[in-house]
Design a protein that fits this description.
By secondary structure, the protein is mainly alpha-helical. The chain contains 9 helices and no strands. The longest helix has 34 residues.
Length: 227
């Protein structure tokens, strides 16, 4: 498995992946839906998978003396590594965001621990839609990416719309005021920190469990594929 992971790093990493990490700086933009920055990481992962189609990477790797299960798991783990790098880059960006945009974000979630939780859910949605479909038929990677993009933007619209509504209606609706004062506050009060940490833990649980299930499903699909 370790050797397959190194193979992903040395042979399958396109230039778009490190370049698209720069989109973490989108948190510097005032009045912008910051979850879109995470979508570009998903976009770079698509480039990686699509490049492997052109290079016949699946066939090459499957011909190596390794189980097909490990072929899938190595790629999924490498995908997770890319997403976690972006996640770690977003952490310091939150602090810079509040220096540059102290008034908050009227276009959705402020930079906060809750934003990081929403980013992990976004990665989970992408993985759940795109990865199993890719191993079912790699020749349809473009179509599969389109479907996964739609799913990701449905999540972005739902989440950011909820946060915008909370900011706009907090004076009239107590629940929305609670959301604005706790989930969307940074720097936060002690109570809000606890709530955001719970939200982040929930996002991490969804990401970890979701990616585990995605990996198992992709393995089952790929083991039935006749290369």
């Amino acid at each position: 498995m370790k050797q397959l992971f190194y193979k992903e790093l040395k042979l399958c990493l396109p230039l778009q992946v490190p370049l698209f990490f720069l989109f973490a700086a989108m948190l510097f933009i005032p009045a912008y839906p910051y979850l879109v920055a995470c979508f570009f990481t998903c976009n770079s992962i698509y480039y990686m998978f699509n490049q492997s189609v052109g290079n016949n990477d699946l066939l090459f790797t499957a011909l190596l003396p390794v189980p097909k299960e490990q072929v899938v798991k190595a790629r999924v783990r490498f995908t997770v590594a890319i997403q976690l790098v972006m996640f770690l880059l977003l952490v310091p960006m939150i602090f810079v965001n509040h220096k540059l945009v102290p008034q908050g974000n009227p276009a959705g979630t402020d930079g906060s621990l809750t934003f990081l939780a929403a980013a992990l859910v976004l990665f989970t949605v992408f993985n759940a839609v795109f990865i199993p479909a890719f191993y079912r038929d790699e020749t349809k990677s473009g179509k599969n990416f389109l479907v996964s993009t739609i799913a990701v933007f449905v999540w972005i619209i739902l989440w950011e719309g909820f946060m915008i509504t909370s900011a706009a209606a907090q004076a009239q609706v107590p629940f929305f005021r609670w959301v604005a004062e706790n989930l969307d506050a940074f720097p936060a009060t002690a109570g809000a920190w606890r709530i955001q940490l719970i939200a982040l833990a929930a996002g991490a649980l969804i990401y970890g469990l979701g990616t585990f299930l995605v990996s198992r499903k992709a393995v089952r699909i790929f083991e039935q594929v006749d290369l």
